[in-house]
What does this fold into?
Amino acid sequence: MARTYASVNEAWRELRNARNRAHEENYRTPQAHHGYDPDQPRVPKGHSDGGQWTDTGGGENTSEISSDATPDNEWRPGSRYAQTRGRGSVPVRIGNRWFEAEGGQAVRLAAAQARQHNAIARVRELEPNWRPKPSAHETVEGLIRTYEGEARQAETRLAELASVGVCPGPFAAGSIPARGPERNFTTLERAGVNRFGYETGCHTCGTNDPGTRSGNFILDHQPPNALNRLSRDQRLFPHCLTCSLRQGGWISNRGSSR
Ligand SMILES: [Zn+2]
It folds into this structure.
């Protein structure tokens, strides 16, 4: 179990890091962002704190949170993370007003925002048009609740997607690397996926019975070919016939409803 989830999480982590790097690049452009001082010292890239602001000693935190949780605001890859350093306060814009998030509140806000951002990014990799239900907020605490609520919606959606087999399911344990999207599996690959299937079950429903006439598990590409827009390296997980058919039905319904 740990291994496959770890590999999936690692992929997401890489995606997030890439976004963070892109986001750092955005900050280098001279567009006037609130509180951004291009001359402020930075830790050199390559250092573990690379690209982040260093403490100027003034005690004022110049980093910014801008809410991408507001109903009329599209999520975008370069959207900002709250970067709380030390004990300073963080300016937060809600509607047309600025608030100060202090200390622990700023930390909770950053955590809620990161959780929301990460969960929505994971859903949107499978469903690019997915969005949480909009909700209004007028205070920093309200914004934190909005982020948490949107993260929960996205996490619920991820669980639904896992239940129809379009992402690694709760029983995903062992998998093998796919050579490509094709289904020209070798005897060795079939045997490898069968072994995981007999030991730990279908990755979506957990059954040890593949339900096929041949007694073989179906080798399931994850991410599924039809949803692999980012051309991620795919892996092969054991699928039972029922879950494989459900996955196929979900993908083709989705295709025809677009
Ligand atoms: Zn199954």
